[in-house]
Design a protein that fits this description.
The structure is a single chain. The two termini are about 30 Å apart. Helix 11 links the parallel strand 6 and strand 7. Strands 3-2-4-1-5-6-7-8 form an eight-stranded mixed sheet, with helices on both faces. It is elongated. The protein is about 55% helix and about 15% strand. It is an alpha/beta fold and about 325 residues long. It is built from twelve helices and eight strands.
């Protein structure tokens, strides 16, 4: 690893530590109180830990799973003291996250993509940071030397098309747009046709984030996907659901709705820097068995990071 790679990794980790600071303070402060005066991990400590994880938006099902794993570890090793609880927690949560990420390995921005062009269809309700996520993804792929084309298929709102156009200009990548009210599938068709003709590396298609009628949403997303397949038979390669981490259990419900409406195979969890609800990443990953590929931990372009489970857990439960 060269000097600049080491420097980038150091800055990446510092940004992650800073972005998860509120969540870390909440978790670690409560865990410290839970083991105060305790020499062993007993039933009371585990009850307190369960309450801490649930209140940190990890979710009931996932919390029970983590507590069970820790109970088994404590039963196996009689010498584990209460002061080792944080280490135990880090190891078990990290293992849980990595189990759920193996289905869809995270490919770095500067690595060779598995498809050419690699087509990403982005879904998510309005206000979760969907357009910003697309802009930041486009920037990082472009910085890695890849040719990127955006498709403005969220034609339900004029603001969505305008915002994506601004991002395309800011990042310096091409965009295909037909304006508000256009047929989203037509926009997707034109975007993939253009990408194929130009030999683009990455295509990112924005879609409308309406959840009030799941049937309409399902029909629209299915239509977009079917039209894409006319140009590139195995597209889209990723259906990336963007969730706002600061909404906690509401993000879980959105994930439930979207996974019922379409075949989501990757997640991006945004706005983690402004909340103490970072534990929601653990719960969502475990409940839906969908890999978290990106997390948003700040305003900078590079603060949309590739998700690394051990690094994330280290920052979240750092002493």
């Amino acid at each position: 690893m060269g000097f600049f790679s080491k420097l980038f990794n150091k800055e990446h980790k510092e940004s992650l530590d800073q972005g998860l600071q509120k969540s870390k303070e909440s978790f670690f402060g409560k865990i410290t109180k839970a083991i105060a005066g305790k020499s062993t991990v007993d039933a009371e400590v585990l009850d307190n830990l369960e309450e801490i994880l649930i209140s940190g938006d990890v979710g009931v099902t996932t919390t029970i799973k983590i507590i069970k794993r820790i109970e088994e570890r404590v039963a196996r090793d009689k010498y584990l003291g209460a002061n080792e609880l944080n280490t135990l927690l880090k190891e078990e949560v990290s293992a849980l996250l990595q189990e759920n990420s193996t289905k869809n390995a995270v490919v770095g921005f500067d690595e060779n993509l598995p498809n050419s062009p690699h087509v990403i269809m982005v879904v998510g309700v309005n206000g979760v940071g969907k357009t910003t996520t697309i802009g930041k993804l486009a920037h990082q792929y472009k910085q890695a030397g890849k040719q990127v084309i955006l498709g403005a298929a969220d034609t339900f709102r004029a603001a969505a098309v305008d915002q994506l156009t601004i991002w395309s200009e800011r990042v310096g990548v091409a965009i295909v747009s037909q304006g508000m009210g256009a047929d989203p599938a037509s926009v997707a068709f034109d975007t993939l046709s253009s990408a194929k003709a130009k030999g683009a590396d990455v295509v990112i298609i924005d879609t409308a984030g309406r959840l009030h009628n799941k049937v309409n949403l399902m029909n629209e997303l299915t239509k977009i996907k079917n039209v894409m397949k006319k140009i590139i038979p195995d597209a889209p390669h990723e259906v990336l659901l963007v969730l706002d981490g600061s909404t906690g259990q509401n993000a879980v419900e959105q994930c439930r709705q979207f996974t019922a409406a379409t075949d989501v195979n990757a997640l991006a969890v945004t706005k983690l820097d402004g909340t103490a609800k970072g534990g929601v990443v653990i719960g969502i990953s475990d409940e839906f068995k969908i890999p978290v590929k990106f997390i948003g931990v700040g305003e900078k372009m590079t603060d949309l990071q590739l998700f690394n489970a051990p690094e994330f857990v280290d920052s979240l439960f750092k002493a």
